[in-house]
Every structure is written in structure tokens, then in C-alpha cells.
Specification:
Shape: flat
Oligomer: single chain
Bound molecules: arginine
Distance between the termini: 36 Å
Low-confidence stretches: none
């Protein structure tokens, strides 16, 4: 039963506000002592021409007279109507809803008929996949899952950084100092070394820069020798990225880098020129954005070469033409906020109908505070080093706490990576993440392992009982405060998903799962589940089964594994 909606139905008969508005006004009081549902009467004051506190009293009198059986009590606290539900009926309803939906609890068809592009990960060819790309990938993947769960038609795109002046430099360096076998073996590391060497040597020999530029121009005009090397660099880099994506359980519908748009760039420049939006400045072509309080958006270099914003404009136009998207999300660190604001403004000025759906989803940086991975030294921190370290540390914890656990390596991988993902998703995404191992891997703190552990605990209880219990239970045995607190969180879980989607904030789900894990642990510590009384036992097992299902579903939605033992 949908309690909020039922309450809104009743209130609609006493007031002149429409059902939808009433529904949105109904709150969950922060303190359960105040009630299970609350309705503030402020909005009614105008039309009813009375003080909200008086209205609350009057409505409560009517409510108690009509008293539906799911309401235990209604009380006025100042301008608030506070409703106390019949606890065991509520718990029964909450569990039944979970069992009925099974693994699709929380899924809906809210987004059916809407097209969403989620562009994420987007590392750069021949450069390290660093922790910033890790953040990008895990936030993007969570949003990808969340939108799919709500029925949206999602296309995920990995927008590789595979075009730009660095490739001319890399080809020059490879021609001079590279070895095929060496690069095949070392992959990105070898390419990065070549790139670094190029810059070192170019300091003394500026002619290298001319050579690199010449390669760039040749590539833009289709030179096969340059392009073949460039394709090889891409293949080598993708080999490394794909190993990481496999570990992170990430797949893209499209892997389509910046280079894909090269032949679409002249048309962009031409439209901009035809519309009179593009002007010359110091030999380059720009769109003046002074009227919008932003520096100009660079479209063409003085040598005619295209730039990062040009490629984003071309990509947005192309995607709109292909997909007619309702929304196109772009994940990047917050240091690119200006870049996105600029080129999105240009798309808007071009009058493209896709402009309204473009959304930049930005996030904060990692700050590594301890150990050898200190960002203070300014070096890049590679994602796979952090992942390997998380898994190694987790394995050590398992060896210490649960040495007989079967398949320790797999569990360590799932828990170590889960810890990193959860840590990244637990806060508002724009906040920088102060990274410390102690915080990430603390099994007692607000961490991924804590939630995974609560899930494993449920599995262990159900295993000991010999079965999961669902349909057959009497909620009268779940009338205690702890069970009610758990049921409340189970009941509210589905609403988190559209909220997370509307704000592009997976933390809303992560926090809810944390609260659920904590509430279940409180229940577990207060009540023995496998008691002799078969009826009580069945009811507590039913609660455990529902928690296990929702924790698993929620973790998976965030792309975190839910091992059955750890
Ligand atoms: N490759 C870029 C980077 O690593 C991110 C690309 C973001 N997407 C875009 N459409 N500009 O910083």
C-alpha cells in the first residue's frame, strides 16, 4: 500500500489542493517520535483563511472520526499533522512490496520513452588512466545503471581523447627513439616515456616541434603512415583500459573518440561563420562570449587546426542528429566547468534544439593525504595502482579476520573495489574526496565494506536457517522499533532512485543503503533471529530476506558486488 498516496487521497476530500500537490507536501519526520508521516498545513492557510495550527486541529478531528485502519493515531504539533501508522501493518506492507517486486524492487518505467546519453570515463590515448578517470567511470556507471533502472533508453559513450597535437609529438618521438617490441610490452608506460622525452629534447631542439606539427597536419589530411601509428597507439592504450573496464564491470554502448568527429568539424566552422557567430582574433577563429560573462570560445587555431571545444560542439550536434536525445550527460572533473559552459553556450547560440538537454555533470578531485600516493608531490596517481593496493589491503584483512573464507581472492577483489567505489559515491559529487585508506577500508565506518558486510550477515543468517523466508510470515511479530526502522528504509528505498537521477547524485542511494545496513545491524544486535518460536523466527527471517534483497539490489545499482560471505 502507498501510504503517502492514501493520505493525500483523504486530505484531498478536506481541502482544495490537488492530489499531486498534497502528495509532494507530505513529509517523513526526521525524528520517528514525531510520527511516521507529517503534513504541514501552511499551504492551506490562504484558501481556508485560517491559521495553519487551527487547520491542523480541524483536519485531525475529521481524520480520527473517519479513522482508516492503517492509521494508529493522528496528532497536531503546531501547524503539523503528524500521523502514526499501525506499525506491524506497515512492516507487513513494506516486506510484501519487496517480495512482490523481487530483484526489480525500485525499478520503474518513469523514464520510458526518454532518450539519455551518458558520456563517461573518456580517458586519453597514450596517457595514464588516473584516479580522476576512475572517479569519472564509477560516477558515470552508477548514473548509467540508475537511468536504465528507471526505464530510460540509455546509450553510454566512452569519448576517448584520441585526437590533438600530442599525437604529432608522439609520432615524432617514436620515429626517433622508439622500439616496437618495447612499446608492445610496456604499452601506455612506454608511450608516456616517449612523450616525456619529446618535451625534454624539444627544450634544446625546437625543430622537433616543427616536425611534430607537420605530422599533425599530415594526419589531419589522412596520411596513412601517421594514421597507422596512431591506430596502433589507440589499440595499445585500449588493451590497458579494457583490462580495467573488465575489473570494474564497465561496458560502453559506444566507444567513440574525439577523432570520430574530425570530418564533421569543417561543417561546424562553416555554420558558425554563416551565422556570423565566429570572428577572427589574433589569427584564430573564436566565438565572442563576453555578453555571457565568459572568455571567448576558441574554434580554429591560426593554422586552421581544430580545438577541444570545436570537437565537443561537433560531437553534440552529431549526437543530437543521431539520437534526438532528451538529455546528454557529460562527466568530467570540475576544472572543466568553464570549457563546458562555453561550448554549450555556443550550441545554444546556434539555435540547435539539443542545447536544452546538454548537462555537465562535474565532480571534485581526489586528495591523497597519506603514504606514497601523495598528490602533494603533484604526480599523477594511476587508477590501477590504487585498485591493486585496495585489493591487497583487503586480502590482508580477510587473512587476519576470516582466514578460512573460500575464494578469498575474488572476495578481496569485490570488497576492495567496492570500497573504492562506495567511498567515491558517498558524498555530493562536487566535493573533493580526502582519500585515506583508514577511512576507505574501515569495516566499522561508513564504508562499502560495512554495507557489504551487513549483506553477507543476512546471507549467513539465512544460510543457518536453511532457507529464506518471504511470503509466509505474520508481521505482528515485527512490531518492535528496530524492525519498524528497517521497514521504513525498505519502504522509502524506491523513491531514492528517481531522486538520485533528477540530481545526478548517486550518493542519495549510497546513503540510504548505509542507513539500511545500520538499521538492520541494530535489529540484529537487539533481537535473536533464530529463536525457537517458529512464528517469530519466520517473521525475523522475512525481514532479513527483504534487507538482503534490497542491499544487494542497491549495491549492484551502484556497480558494487554483494558477496555472500566475506
Ligand atoms: N578526455 C578528457 C580528459 O581526460 C575528458 C573528456 C570529457 N568529455 C568531453 N566531451 N569533453 O580530461
Amino acid at each position: 500500500m502507498d501510504y503517502k498516496s492514501a493520505l493525500a487521497d483523504i486530505l484531498a476530500t478536506y481541502t482544495d489542493l490537488p492530489h499531486e500537490e498534497l502528495l509532494q507536501t507530505i513529509e517523513t519526520p526526521p525524528d520517528p517520535k514525531l510520527g511516521d508521516l507529517a503534513f504541514p498545513c501552511f499551504r492551506l492557510a490562504k484558501s481556508m483563511k485560517k491559521a495553519p495550527a487551527v487547520i491542523a486541529q480541524e483536519i485531525i478531528a475529521k481524520l480520527m472520526e473517519a479513522k482508516p485502519d492503517w492509521i494508529n493515531e493522528a496528532r497536531a504539533t503546531g501547524p503539523y499533522i503528524n500521523i502514526f501508522l499501525d506499525k506491524s501493518a506497515f512492516v507487513g506492507d513494506a516486506l510484501t512490496a519487496v517480495f512482490k517486486a523481487g530483484s526489480s524492487y525500485g525499478a520503474s518505467n518513469l523514464g520510458v520513452g526518454q532518450k539519455i546519453i551518458v558520456e563517461y570515463s573518456s580517458p586519453n590515448i597514450a596517457k595514464y588512466f588516473h584516479v580522476g578517470h576512475f572517479a569519472n567511470t564509477v560516477i558515470g556507471k552508477a548514473l548509467d545503471n540508475i537511468y536504465r533502472c528507471l526505464g530510460y533508453d540509455v546509450t553510454s559513450i566512452n569519448h576517448l581523447g584520441d585526437w590533438g597535437t600530442q599525437f604529432g609529438k608522439l609520432i615524432t618521438a617514436y620515429m626517433k627513439w622508439g622500439s616496437k617490441e618495447e612499446i608492445e610490452k610496456t604499452e601506455i608506460e612506454g608511450l608516456v616515456k616517449l612523450y616525456v622525452r619529446f618535451h625534454e629534447e624539444a627544450d634544446n631542439d625546437p625543430s622537433l616541434n616543427d616536425e611534430a606539427r607537420a605530422w599533425g597536419v599530415k594526419m589531419e589530411s589522412g596520411d596513412e603512415e601517421g594514421l597507422a601509428l596512431w591506430r596502433w597507439f589507440i589499440a595499445l592504450s585500449m588493451r590497458e583500459f579494457d583490462r580495467l573496464y573488465k575489473r570494474l564491470n564497465v561496458k560502453f554502448d559506444l566507444t567513440r573518440g574525439e577523432s570520430y568527429y574530425t570530418d564533421k568539424m569543417p561543417a561546424v566552422a562553416k555554420s558558425l561563420a554563416d551565422m556570423g557567430l565566429m570572428v577572427e582574433s589574433d589569427g584564430a577563429q573564436i566565438v565572442d562570449l563576453e555578453a555571457y560573462g565568459m572568455p571567448p570560445c576558441l574554434i580554429l587555431r591560426s593554422d586552421g587546426g581544430t580545438l577541444y571545444p570545436t570537437r565537443d560542439i561537433a560531437a553534440a550536434l552529431d549526437r543530437y542528429e543521431l539520437f534526438k536525445f532528451d538529455k546528454c550527460l557529460y562527466l568530467t572533473g570540475h576544472e572543466q566547468i568553464l570549457h563546458f559552459a562555453q561550448w554549450m553556450k555556443v550550441v545554444e547560440l546556434m539555435g540547435n534544439p539539443g542545447a536544452a538537454g546538454l548537462v555537465h555533470v562535474s565532480y571534485g578531485m581526489y586528495n591523497f593525504v597519506d603514504g606514497k600516493m601523495s598528490t602533494r608531490k603533484g604526480q599523477i596517481i594511476k587508477a590501477d595502482e590504487v585498485i591493486n593496493e585496495a585489493v591487497t589491503k583487503t586480502l590482508a584483512i580477510i587473512e587476519e579476520k576470516n582466514p578460512d573464507l573460500p575464494d578469498k581472492e575474488t572476495v578481496a577483489e569485490e570488497v576492495g573495489i567496492g570500497a573504492l567505489i562506495f567511498n567515491r559515491l558517498y558524498n555530493n559529487r562536487i566535493k573533493d574526496v580526502m582519500f585515506s585508506w583508514e577511512r576507505v577500508l574501515n569495516f566499522e565506518g561508513e564504508t562499502g565494506p560495512y554495507v557489504q558486510y551487513a549483506h553477507a550477515r543476512c546471507c549467513s543468517v539465512l544460510g543457518k536457517a536453511g532457507h529464506a523466508s518471504s511470503a509466509d510470515f505474520d508481521p505482528a511479530h515485527l512490531a518492535d522499533d528496530e524492525a519498524f526502522a528497517v521497514a521504513r528504509l525498505l519502504y522509502d528505498y524506491p523513491a531514492c532512485i528517481p531522486e538520485a537521477a533528477s540530481k545526478n547524485e548517486p550518493y542519495i542511494i549510497a546513503r540510504h543503503l548505509m542507513a539500511l545496513a545500520q538499521a538492520y545491524n541494530a535489529f540484529y544486535h537487539k533481537h535473536i533471529i533464530l529463536v525457537d518460536d517458529q512464528e517469530v523466527r519466520k517473521a525475523r527471517l522475512a525481514l532479513t530476506t527483504a534487507v538482503q534483497q534490497v542491499l544487494k539490489g542497491g549495491l549492484n545499482l551502484l556497480n558494487i558486488a554483494a558477496p555472500e560471505a566475506m
